[in-house]
C-alpha cells in the first residue's frame, strides 16, 4: 500500500470512525468500596502512641479537633493544597499537627514526622478494608467484560470518581483490586500524529510501544478520576465530565493494545495498524454511577445527566459521612453491591443489543 493510500485510510478512520457502544460503571471509593478498619481518631491516637506520644488523648475531642482542622486548611489551601503546597502529604501534615495541637498539653511535644507516618498509614490495608460485597461485585463485572471482550465490539469500562488525593489508587491496589497502572492518555491524538514521524524514520510500532497504551479486560478499575487530579469535587458535574475525557480514548487504546501482539514487519503495515486504531470512538454511551452519599454521588451524577444508584448499607451507619436519606425519597437505592450486578447486566445487554 502506498503512502498516499495509507494517508487516505488514516483520514477515513478519523472522519468516519467506528462508533462503539460503551457502558461505564463508576463508583465512589471510601464508604462504597472500602471503609475504615477502626474509627479515624482511634487510629490516629494508636499510631501517635506507638510513635512516642505520652499524653492521653480523648477520641471525641480529637474527632472534633480534626474536623475543625480539616475545615480550616480546606479553606486556606483548597484541594489538598494543590498548586500552593508541595504535596498532599504536606497538607495532611498541617491538618494532623493542628488537630493534635489543640487536644494535647502545651508542654507535650508531638512525635517527629507524625504527619508523614499517618499519611503513609492511610494509604493502604492497615487503615482500610474492603466491604464484603466488593469482591463478588468485581468478579461479576469481570465475567461481563469477558462476554464483550472483542476489541471491535461493545466496550465495558469501570472507574472510580472520588473526592480524594492520589492515595486512592494505592489503597485500592493494596486491598487487592487490579487498577490500571497507567492512566488512559488524554492526548492520544498526539501519539497518533507522531506515528507519521515514526514511519518516516523507519521506526516500526512506535505508537504501539507507547507506555500510556495500557488496557486489560482483567482490570477491576480501568480509570481513576480524583478531585485532586481534576480540580473538580463532587457533586460538581465536572467531576464526571473529566472522567468522560478518559473514557473517550479507551476504544482507541483497546484496539491498539489488541494490535500490539502482532508486530509490524514494514512501514506500510505499521501505518495500516495505526489507521485502524485511530478509527474507533465511543458511540452510544450509558453511564451508571454508584455511591453512598446522596448529595455528592446521586445528586451530582444525575446533575451530570448520568444514571445513578444510591448505596445504603443497613449496617454501615457508623461511617462518619453518612446522612439520613429520608429527605430524598423515591430515588433508586441498593443495599449492597450484589444488587447492582443484576442492574448492570441488564443495562449493558440492553444497550449492546440496541447497538448490534
TrEMBL record:
| Source superkingdom | Eukaryota
Entry GO terms, CC: nucleus
Q: Pfam families, alphabetically? A: Hydrolase (PF00702)
| Organism of origin | Exophiala oligosperma
List, alphabetically, the InterPro entries matched: HAD-like_hydrolase_domain, HAD-like_sf, HAD-SF_hydro_IA_REG-2-like_cap, HAD_sf
Classification via Gene3D superfamilies? HAD superfamily/HAD-like, Haloacid dehalogenase-like hydrolase
Protein name, UniProt field: Haloacid dehalogenase, type II
Amino acid at each position: 500500500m502506498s503512502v498516499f493510500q495509507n494517508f487516505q485510510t488514516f483520514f477515513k478512520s478519523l472522519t468516519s470512525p467506528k462508533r462503539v457502544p460503551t457502558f461505564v460503571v463508576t463508583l465512589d471509593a471510601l464508604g462504597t468500596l472500602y471503609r475504615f478498619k477502626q474509627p479515624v481518631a482511634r487510629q490516629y491516637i494508636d499510631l501517635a502512641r506507638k510513635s512516642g506520644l505520652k499524653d492521653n488523648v480523648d477520641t471525641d475531642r480529637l474527632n472534633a479537633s480534626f474536623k475543625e482542622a480539616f475545615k480550616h486548611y480546606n479553606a486556606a489551601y483548597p484541594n489538598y493544597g494543590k498548586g500552593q503546597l508541595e504535596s498532599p502529604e504536606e497538607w495532611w501534615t498541617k491538618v494532623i499537627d493542628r488537630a493534635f495541637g489543640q487536644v494535647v498539653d502545651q508542654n507535650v511535644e508531638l512525635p517527629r514526622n507524625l504527619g508523614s507516618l499517618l499519611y503513609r498509614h492511610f494509604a493502604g490495608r492497615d487503615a482500610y478494608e474492603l466491604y464484603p460485597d466488593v469482591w463478588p461485585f468485581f468478579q461479576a463485572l469481570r465475567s461481563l467484560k469477558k462476554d464483550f471482550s472483542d476489541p471491535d465490539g461493545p466496550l465495558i469500562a469501570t472507574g472510580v470518581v472520588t473526592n480524594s488525593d492520589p492515595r486512592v489508587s494505592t489503597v485500592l491496589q493494596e486491598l487487592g483490586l487490579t487498577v490500571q497502572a497507567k492512566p488512559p492518555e488524554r492526548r492520544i491524538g498526539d501519539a497518533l500524529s507522531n506515528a507519521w514521524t515514526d514511519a518516516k524514520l523507519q521506526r516500526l510500532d512506535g505508537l504501539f510501544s507507547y507506555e500510556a497504551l495500557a488496557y486489560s479486560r482483567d482490570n477491576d478499575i480501568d480509570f481513576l478520576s480524583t478531585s485532586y487530579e481534576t480540580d473538580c469535587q463532587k457533586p460538581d458535574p465536572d467531576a464526571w465530565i473529566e472522567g468522560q475525557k478518559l473514557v473517550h480514548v479507551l476504544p482507541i487504546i483497546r484496539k491498539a493494545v489488541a494490535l500490539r501482539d502482532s508486530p509490524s514487519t514494514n512501514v506500510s503495515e505499521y501505518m495500516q495498524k495505526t489507521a485502524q486504531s485511530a478509527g474507533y470512538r465511543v458511540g452510544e454511551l450509558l453511564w451508571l454511577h454508584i455511591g453512598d452519599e446522596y448529595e455528592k454521588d446521586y445528586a451530582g451524577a444525575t446533575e451530570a445527566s448520568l444514571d445513578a444508584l444510591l448505596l445504603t448499607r443497613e449496617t454501615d451507619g457508623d461511617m462518619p459521612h453518612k446522612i439520613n436519606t429520608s429527605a430524598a425519597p423515591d430515588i433508586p437505592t441498593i443495599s449492597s453491591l450484589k444488587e447492582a450486578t443484576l442492574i448492570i447486566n441488564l443495562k449493558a445487554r440492553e444497550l449492546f443489543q440496541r447497538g448490534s
